[in-house]
Please model this.
Amino acid sequence: MWGWILDCMSTTERPRILVVGGGYVGLYAARRILKKMRYGEATVTVVDPRSYMTYQPFLPEAAAGSISPRHVVVPLRRVLPKAEVLTGRVTTIDQDRKVATVAPLVGDAYELPFDYLVVAMGAVSRTFPIPGLAENGIGMKGIEEAIGLRNHVLEQLDKADSTTDEEVRRKALTFVFIGGGFAGAETVGEVEDMARDAAKYYKNVKREDMRFLLVDVADKILPEVGPKLGAYGKEHLESRGVEVYLKTGMKSCVDGHVVLDNGLEVLSNTIVWTAGVKPNPALSRFGLPLGPRGHIDAEPTLQVKGTDYIWAAGDNAQVPDMVGRRNGNENAWCPPNAQHALRQAKVLGDNVVSGMRGFPQKEYSHANKGAVAGLGLHKGVAMIVMGKMKIKLKGRLAWYMHRAYHGMAMPTFNRKIRVFADWTLATFLKREVVSLGAMENPREEFYEAAKPAPAPAAAADGGKPKAKAS
Ligand SMILES: Cc1cc2nc3c(=O)[nH]c(=O)nc-3n(C[C@H](O)[C@H](O)[C@H](O)COP(=O)(O)OP(=O)(O)OC[C@H]3O[C@@H](n4cnc5c(N)ncnc54)[C@H](O)[C@@H]3O)c2cc1C
Model:
């Protein structure tokens, strides 16, 4: 009891390490700091608008129902029991006073003092002012979007199965994906696979009735795995009936009327936007040095340029790629991916503890280990880098590599087991193809049942509202 009271009293005197963002970098950096720190050396506070970290590489599989959405997220309070976890958004940083402003989920914003700061707010979807995009586009950055996409796609099959209107049916069965990087190619691959599976249970919908379009302004898809495997990925998707349009952009999509700049026009209820990411725009209010594309300018030690108490890593930072630079490319930067985010977080965590103790900082350096991408059940591409050798795999073997790599990379033993259990169950019990569209508005039915009955006069005239007497 006394120990606990003393502990609480001393909490205020401890320096605070404030971690802004509980995603890949935030979670791993906080864990590393807590592991390396002496008992009571500092208070670690993690602030994130979500109470969980999302393992984004599994979003396409969550959208396709191969993994339960709950298993793709890691509850921050559970994995960081020794940290103070606050659910809210950091809106500004005052460097002179070393104070952050936190806007919690409810109530007024408040100030939070800190001694050391880690900025790990990741990226947001990169969009363009395309007419209709904001109203009709579906993003792919969070678990909510993955669940929404899955329900939405299955609902389109329900609609198409039950309508007699040919235009409604065609619009429901046309699925457009903009952006052919990891997120877009994997999502179209997984969703096409799921829709093909689901069609077996519909009397009036066959795979041939559906249209899948993958559109990219670049001249290739999956640039992360290199040109040859990217070309294979494209051919593979085309062999499954996906129409791939390269060097093509979307001009507009007002009311689901999609117009591409190659002249093609289609009607679609499903426009998935995965055309890249940009650093979190909230960074512009932090007063930190930013690079030309809005990333925080970080040293190889992950310290923010010109500071010795602020660190940044992951998708919101531009971190010099020291391996590329040693090999003669003076402008090499680490690409924004999970491979770097995870490793940067560990070095960052060590450097925060060293900084607190007045020890020197370590430089971050990591040679690319390759990339793996899943394109649906038993389909994928993988490029494994071993020294100077690049091993290229495709098909089932690449898909196994994809599952093995991401299954092992999934944070926490608990989540790894759940993900492997989902995969095993899906092998024996087949994929779940039910749409829970009502999840978006779960109170609607209850409201209809519980709302006050209209007055008798109003009921007689169909419940039309009367003009108010003046
Ligand atoms: C669909 C998809 C598939 C992907 N597949 C792969 C893959 O196969 N391989 C790979 O290497 N990479 C992949 N990536 C990229 C990888 O997931 C990211 O590079 C990685 O998540 C970056 O980590 P981060 O910590 O910088 O950002 P994030 O993990 O995005 O975390 C940022 C956190 O900051 C929080 N935040 C935002 N604003 C605030 C604020 N104002 N205050 C406090 N907190 C805030 C967010 O809620 C979030 O939790 C994929 C990404 C996507 C979207």
Summary: The first strand starts at residue 16 and ends at 20. Residues 143-162 form the longest helix (20 residues). Confidence is low (pLDDT under 50) at residues 1-11, 465-470. Residues 20-26, 47-50, 56-57, 59, 89-90, 120-122, 140-141, 182-183, 280, 282, 314-316, 336-339, 341 surround flavin-adenine dinucleotide (CB under 6 Å).
